[in-house]
Write a structure and sequence with these properties.
By secondary structure, the chain is α/β, with parallel strands linked by helices. It has 2 domains: 133 residues, Golgi alpha-mannosidase II (Immunoglobulin-like, Sandwich), CATH 2.60.40; 356 residues, Glycosidases (TIM Barrel). The chain is built from 12 helices and 25 strands. It has an 8-stranded parallel β-barrel with strand order 2-3-7-8-9-10-11-12, surrounded by 5 helices. Strands 17, 18, 19, 21, 22, 23 and 25 form a 7-stranded antiparallel sheet that branches. β17 and β18 form a beta hairpin. α2 packs parallel to α12 and α11 crosses α12. The radius of gyration is 23 Å and the shape is globular. It binds 2-acetamido-2-deoxy-beta-D-glucopyranose (6 copies). The site of one 2-acetamido-2-deoxy-beta-D-glucopyranose (NAG) has 3 residues, from β6. One 2-acetamido-2-deoxy-beta-D-glucopyranose binds next to β10, α8 and α9. Keywords: Hydrolase, Signal. InterPro entries: GH (IPR017853), GH79_Enzymes (IPR052974), GlcAase_C (IPR031728). It comes from Favolaschia claudopus.
Length: 518
């Protein structure tokens, strides 16, 4: 590596020459317009559905890719949800907040038809997964909820807006039922398969699932043994989950994943979360599960994921560094065949992409805020925007990771048809407020093939420090506005490809090689 002197505000410590392919290789995955999607803790779904701020942040993404993020509603409270015709929306019981859990989840929630009808408020074209309980083994509740869900989606409003139920999910993280009181310690995946099949039979008979486009997704496990023993896709496939009548309606396997947990009040380090190599090892543990799932003709998604379990780690999950983590994590997931990544959110959770309503307690320690904090985006939302801009709005876009032999620089390239259009680069070295001088890496691009592009446009995610919680700008613009819509003058740099580009510690750049911009 050569040390070069570059005219810039930041000292360039070294340069990298990056070979950018001009055409996708045959295995390059086609990437969903809704790669980054939302998983919503359902105990406070009415707060999400009622937030025009939330809707604006979804519409922002639709404006970029042509499709809003998908949403999955359920999670932990899905297994604590009962149904009553006497309840309009929802009645829930919440434990007292604590410093570790400032916004606890409901221990008990009873919902009525109106709860599900709120789906009408979502943007046109929203695709949805909704969960019904398996934990309490109450078929009556599961069936009443499934009927209410189907009725909500069959409404003229949903039909006209193309708001579609892709999947019903039955039960959340059944592999943890033996730890949380739903099942004895002997609970196994074969019992899960029996229970799932019985309840799915009830549900599919009651809502005539086979006559609709809605399918089941299965799994939603918190972890995976990746073997035919323990809980894993391999185990439940070998135990026949796909062979029953409702099993024939399974179209996807959902895995849940967190990089660590804050459940006991102990978070990881932001610098570890952002590290290129740990992002890759967190995802590649699922390679064999993805292959086993694709071999059955099913889609494989991370149906619930985020940085640190139990709502995130303070000073880590809510920071700018988490945006770099989330972007690399979601894009890398596509490279092993994961089709979508649903980032989990709840009211007041630390790892949210956005906070959709005013909060009166600190998300970090539960202390009362001097004045309510209005709805706002958190840094992780920028990962959603940037992934969407890399993907773009064409029907078929392939994204490949660029091979970069360096521990702090990651890159991905997007192709429309077979044409190179854009690339994104992430410098994941954490630059903290107390760090020494911030350095840059100079990237030189080698573009092979005939008539390579000569100019490029650069868009930067500007970040003060990795541990900042606000003040980010994307191409000079901000989403930190009162309504969640972008504001400010777009600022791009146009450069000769031959000159390369600098990327600072804790920075993302989007390089557009196509003529014009976006
Ligand atoms: C469900 O609701 C019924 C009636 O409201 C109640 O008796 C029952 O305990 C509830 N079940 C759960 C698991 O909350
Ligand atoms: C099962 O759910 C139904 C409908 O919500 C409720 O009426 C019933 O009490 C529940 N049973 C139990 C044992 O919780
Ligand atoms: C849940 O709340 C309902 C009323 O909202 C109550 O009838 C039921 O007993 C509660 N169940 C549990 C398990 O606390
Ligand atoms: C679920 O299916 C079982 C077995 O067919 C049946 O006995 C039970 O009544 C069904 N329950 C509901 C709520 O549909
Ligand atoms: C996942 O990432 C975290 C850092 O956020 C790291 O501590 C952990 O070891 C990684 N897990 C795997 C399986 O690589
Ligand atoms: C930081 O930059 C200043 C000014 O260029 C320099 O004097 C100082 O030695 C640098 N510190 C480190 C730790 O590199």
């Amino acid at each position: 590596m050569k040390l070069i002197v570059w005219i810039t505000v930041l000292p360039v410590v070294f340069a990298l020459t990056i070979t950018i392919p001009r055409a996708p290789d045959e295995n390059a995955p086609f990437v969903s317009k809704s790669l980054i999607s939302f998983s919503i803790e359902q105990d406070r779904w009415p707060d999400w559905a009622g937030s025009s701020f939330f809707l604006n942040t979804l519409e922002n993404i639709r404006g970029i890719t042509g499709a809003p993020p998908d949403i999955r509603i359920g999670a932990n409270s899905e297994d604590k949800t009962n149904f009553s015709f006497d309840v309009k929306y929802a009645e829930a019981l919440f434990p007292a907040p604590s410093a570790t859990v400032p916004y606890p989840e409901a221990t008990n929630i009873t919902v009525g038809n109106g709860f599900y009808q709120l789906i009408q408020r979502m943007p046109r074209g929203t695709h949805v997964t909704w969960g019904v309980p398996l934990g309490p083994l109450n078929a009556t509740a599961a069936v009443l909820e499934a009927k209410a869900i189907m009725n909500a989606f069959n409404s003229p409003v949903c039909k006209a807006a193309g708001i579609t139920l892709d999947y019903l999910e039955i039960g959340n993280e059944a592999d943890l039922y033996k730890n949380n009181g739903f099942r004895p310690s002997s609970y196994s995946s074969s019992q899960y398969v029996q229970e799932w099949t019985a309840l799915a039979t009830n549900v599919s008979n009651a809502v005539k699932l086979s006559k609709t486009g809605t399918k089941f997704l299965v799994g939603s496990f918190a972890g995976s043994s990746s073997k035919t023993t323990g809980f894993s896709p391999q185990a439940i496939y070998s135990e026949g989950v796909l062979e029953s009548e409702p099993g024939s309606l399974i179209a996807a396997f959902s895995e849940h994943h967190y990089s660590g947990s804050f459940c006991a009040g102990n978070g990881g380090l932001l610098s570890d979360l952002m590290t290129k190599s740990t992002i890759r090892t967190n995802i590649t543990i699922y390679t064999t599960d993805v292959e086993a799932t694709h071999a059955r003709g099913l889609d494989y998604i991370l149906g619930e994921t985020n940085s640190y379990a139990c709502h995130g780690a303070p000073g880590v999950s809510n920071t700018a560094g988490a945006a770099l983590w989330g972007l690399d994590y979601a894009l890398f997931s596509t490279q092993i065949g994961i089709s979508q990544v649903f980032f989990h959110v709840g009211i007041g959770f630390k790892y949210n992409l956005i906070q959709p309503i005013s909060l009166t307690r600190s998300i970090l320690d539960g202390s009362p805020l001097p004045s309510p904090s209005p709805p706002h985006v958190q840094p992780l939302y920028y990962a959603n925007v940037i992934a969407a801009e890399l993907r773009g709005s064409q029907a078929k876009v392939q994204i490949s990771e660029i091979s970069i032999d360096h521990p702090q620089i990651a890159g991905y390239v997007a192709f429309e048809g077979s044409k190179l259009v854009r690339a994104v680069f992430i410098n994941s070295k954490a630059f903290f407020a107390e760090s020494a001088n911030r350095t840059s890496v100079h990237l030189d691009f080698a573009l092979d093939g005939p008539s390579p592009p000569r100019t490029m446009t650069i868009k930067r995610l500007a970040i003060g420090h990795a541990d900042d919680v606000s003040g980010l700008t994307w191409g000079g613009q901000t989403y930190e506005t009162e309504n969640g819509k972008v504001r400010g003058k777009l600022s791009l740099e146009v450069q000769h490809v031959a000159d390369g580009v600098d990327i600072a510690e804790t920075e993302v750049i989007l390089v557009n090689f196509a003529r014009g911009y976006l």
